[in-house]
Write a structure and sequence with these properties.
The complex is a heterodimer of chains A (127) and B (621).
Chain A lengths: L5 H10 L1 H8 L4 E6 L2 H6 L1 H15 L4 E6 L11 E5 L5 E3 L4 H14 L7 E4 L6
Parallel strand pairs in A: 1-2
Antiparallel strand pairs in A: 1-3, 3-4, 4-5
Helix pairs in contact in A: 4-5
Chain B lengths: L5 E6 L2 H21 L6 E6 L11 E4 L3 E3 L7 H10 L9 E2 L6 E2 L6 H4 L17 H6 L4 H8 L3 H11 L11 H10 L6 E5 L7 H15 L3 E6 L3 H16 L15 E6 L9 H8 L23 E5 H19 L9 E7 L6 E6 L4 H8 L9 E6 L5 E4 L9 H6 L8 E6 L4 H15 L5 H18 L6 H16 L3 H6 L1 H9 L1 H10 L12 E4 L9 H5 L5 E2 L7 E2 L9 H5 L5 E4 L1 H14 L9 H11 L1
Parallel strand pairs in B: 1-2, 7-8, 7-10, 8-9, 11-15
Antiparallel strand pairs in B: 1-3, 3-4, 5-6, 11-12, 13-14, 13-15, 16-19, 17-18
Helix pairs in contact in B: 5-8, 5-11, 6-7, 6-8, 6-11, 8-11, 14-15, 15-16, 16-18
Classes of the chains: A alpha+beta (127), B alpha/beta (621).
Chain lengths: 127, 621
């Protein structure tokens, strides 16, 4: 292996950025895919894979994907909630690969909410 | 670089590794692969998480979920439920001790959220064997800055301004030490890192040593380690990686600065924690301290100027270089700035390795981070500073932990041990135990320590056996002070702390032992009598079951009784009883109870009095 110099240090740091966004928090956008039995049956796994693929393609260090249980709206699965820091969360329903890629590009990367796929803006409140 | 959705970090500290995390890692990787998640989920080992008693520990990012006491059986449900469905597995979650409430997120657990992580900032976050991950967390940036942007004088100035004090025990100012060494002209200078027992990532130590070597002009360094194979392997791996990548050896990071590092495996002698003894042992001589002056900074290894600092001191250096003296001083107090790592143990709810700002109170460490004393026990004292630290009683718990304050209590910061003891412990026995350790570990070079500790041990032993006179306490106090003042090295100077502090704060307990022949904690076998409090005993029989001598008898649901002729004072019953029905009496009580038992024995039955006895029994029933 070649000897490292100061500029190499910075390069290595850049390469590992996404791993530390995942570990340390501070992500700009968080996508929650609902993975109840209903979600899995409707194809939520594919949505997760597509999202990860998009993250890799676009080298988006600041986006994280997590999963959660059933959102209570089983007929609308697969669903995903997108939380962008500073904005209220948006739920998208009846997703497929194409829609997911479109949402990733428009909403996650550029902040445009795609209303035709969205269910509602906001989350249920807990008392 | 693949971007993973979930990062599973398994604690790779010595405890968790031994507890099964290595096997769990393999099983996880296999099952993740079987479910086709291997491009989504990464599994890695990290340095010690510090929450050792709850191990094996696993943290799942990005949600920061901490799973404790994980076993191989749990792997399948972690993969199916958590990794796929995002469901948290409740049985593996930390439970708050008082209310049994589950706390899934690591940062919400009081043990973690009261800590200030600087030296340990990468714990649970990176693989200590990965150079790249260390670099990704600003690793070697400080070394680069020190080599290219700073002169040796700049480095020393900055370290002096930070006020960093040696984390080894005495708390000498690190910057001053370096400055003294830098001033001396010599053909060769050395740096030595003392006792690598702490589980910080090895590259942090290497980086700190590079900066120190640059500041004083050394080209060779030793890392003196205790023989813990896992840690030595990890350290050697890191040194090899650094050599291969031009971070050690010749021309570090493309500069003209050279440094070679070597691991020296110690023989684990306690006295070799003392710097001059340590240096002797590196030179292949018997590990014995030498008088100072000359100090190692003047004449150390092979008569050459040598800076010797502890692991934790070196580990603080890169951060000071990167973030500055002001930032360093933002934690801690004016005279003791920064943070300190402690090993917290004893009968409290959370124990482990912690990093806290200096100046935090003992109370906060024990009650907030430690979660307080376990249910059913009462706090008695806390030993601060490891095996030669003094015992501090409850009324001084608001004491801030700083070098200045702790010394006033006859305790030391020392190796950073905080050991809580409960009402089950006897202070005289505790002092005796630590002096016995000093007797064993004294190297024998100077008479005060060699002879003094033995005499002191005999005096303490007499007290625990009821053979002492009240004057002995003053004798011990005088003797301890003399040993402390005249010993050559830190061992003799600090080993008296437990005796001095217990006499100072628990003199009553010494007097009870001597005058009343009564060890109220029930530890000194010669000075106690265990008996059952008939009003509190519910007759559950738990004590009778644990008694190795079958000395306890009684009918179910009726108060039990101890046969004093059989009792060996093992105190198994005392520790078992949940109803506080077992009591400790003074020594003479045993004889009284034996006589009483003889009197209580029913007279032998004969034809003449059989009706009488029957009548008595009926009344009793």
């Amino acid at each position: 292996m070649p000897k490292l110099t100061i500029s190499d240090l910075t390069k290595i740091k850049e390469q590992h950025k996404s791993a530390f966004t995942v570990r340390e928090g501070g992500a700009r956008a968080k996508v929650i895919v609902h993975m109840g039995t209903c979600g899995i049956a409707a194809g939520a796994r594919k949505i997760v894979e597509t999202l990860l693929d998009e993250i890799n393609l676009n080298n988006s260090h600041d986006v994280i994907v997590t999963t959660s249980g059933c959102a209570g709206l089983c007929s609308q699965e697969p669903m995903a909630t997108i939380e962008i820091a500073g904005f209220s969360p948006v739920k998208y329903v009846k997703l497929d690969e194409m829609k997911t890629r479109e949402i990733f590009k428009k909403h996650i990367l550029n902040g445009e909410i795609i209303e035709k796929y969205a269910l509602v803006s906001g989350n249920e409140t807990q008392i | 670089m693949n971007n993973y959705r979930l990062n599973i970090m398994l604690c790779g500290g010595a405890g968790c590794s031994a507890g099964g995390n290595l096997k769990i890692k393999d099983a996880l990787i296999e099952q993740i692969k079987n479910k086709g998640l291997d491009r989504e989920v990464s599994v890695q080992m990290t340095s010690c998480n510090g929450f050792c008693p709850q191990g094996p520990i696993m943290i799942i990012y990005p949600d920061n979920i901490l799973y404790q006491k994980v076993s191989l059986k749990d792997v399948a449900s972690i993969v199916d439920e958590h990794l796929i469905k995002g469901k948290i597995i409740d049985k593996l979650i930390y439970k708050e001790p008082a209310k049994k409430q589950s706390i899934p997120v690591m940062k919400d657990i009081p043990f973690f959220n009261k800590q200030v992580l600087r030296v340990l900032r990468n714990k649970g976050l990176i693989d200590p064997e990965s150079l790249e991950q260390y670099i990704a967390r600003d690793g070697y940036q400080a070394a680069g800055k020190a080599l290219f942007e700073m002169t040796p004088e700049d480095i020393i100035d900055l370290v002096k301004k930070s006020g960093l004090r040696g984390r080894g025990g005495a708390g000498a100012l690190t910057g001053m030490k370096w400055e003294q060494c830098a001033k001396i002209k010599a053909p060769q200078k050395f740096i030595v890192c003392n006792r690598s027992i702490i589980e910080v990532e090895p590259h942090l130590i290497i980086e700190g040593m590079i900066i120190c070597a640059r500041a004083i002009g050394a080209s060779k360094g030793f890392i003196y380690v205790r023989s813990i194979p896992v840690l030595i392997d990890r350290l050697q791996k890191a040194i090899d990686q650094a050599m291969e990548n031009g971070l050690l050896g010749e021309g570090i990071l493309g500069s003209d600065f050279n440094l070679e590092l070597e691991i020296f495996k110690s023989s684990d002698e306690f006295v070799c924690g003392e710097e001059t003894a340590l240096l002797m042992s590196i030179q292949s001589k018997r590990g014995m301290p030498t008088p100072r002056p000359p100090f190692p900074v003047e004449k150390g290894l092979w008569e050459m100027p040598t800076v010797i600092n502890t692991v934790e001191t070196f580990a603080n250096i890169p951060l000071i270089i990167l973030k500055g003296a002001e930032w360093f001083r933002s934690a801690g107090t004016e005279l003791s700035p920064g943070t300190k790592i402690f090993s917290l143990s004893g009968p409290i709810n959370n124990t482990g390795l912690i990093e806290v700002p200096m100046g935090i109170t003992l109370k906060s460490v024990i009650n907030d981070i430690g979660g307080g004393v376990v249910k059913g026990r009462k706090f008695k004292a806390v030993q601060v500073g490891g095996s030669t630290g003094g015992y501090i009683p409850e009324e001084f718990l608001s004491l801030p932990i700083t070098y200045e304050d702790v010394t006033q209590m006859d305790a030391i910061i020392g190796s950073g041990g905080i050991y809580v003891i409960s009402d089950l412990n006897c202070m005289v026995s505790s002092a005796k135990f630590t002096i016995e350790f000093a007797v064993d570990e004294s190297c024998g070079k100077c008479p005060p320590c060699r002879i003094g500790t033995t005499v002191l041990f005999d005096l303490l032993n007499n007290i625990t056996q009821g053979k002492a006179k009240p004057e002995d306490i003053d004798l011990m106090e005088d003797l301890s002070k003399d040993i402390k003042n005249t010993s050559l090295c830190g061992l003799g100077q600090t080993a008296m702390n437990p005796v001095l502090s217990t006499i100072r704060f628990f003199r009553d307990e010494y007097l009870e032992h001597i005058n009343e022949k009564w060890c109220k904690a029930g530890v000194c076998k010669e000075l106690c009598t265990f008996f059952v409090d008939k009003e509190k005993c519910i007759g559950c029989g738990a004590c009778a079951r644990v008694c190795p001598k079958k000395a306890i008898s009684g009918e179910k649901k009726k108060p039990h009784n101890i046969d004093q002729t059989l009792c060996i004072q093992c105190r198994a019953c005392y520790e078992t009883c949940k109803f506080n029905a077992l009591k400790v009496g003074p020594r003479h009580l045993r004889e009284e109870l034996m006589i009483k038992m003889d009197e209580q024995k029913p007279p032998d039955a004969t034809i003449n009095n059989i009706e009488e006895i029957k009548q008595e029994n009926k009344e009793a029933l």
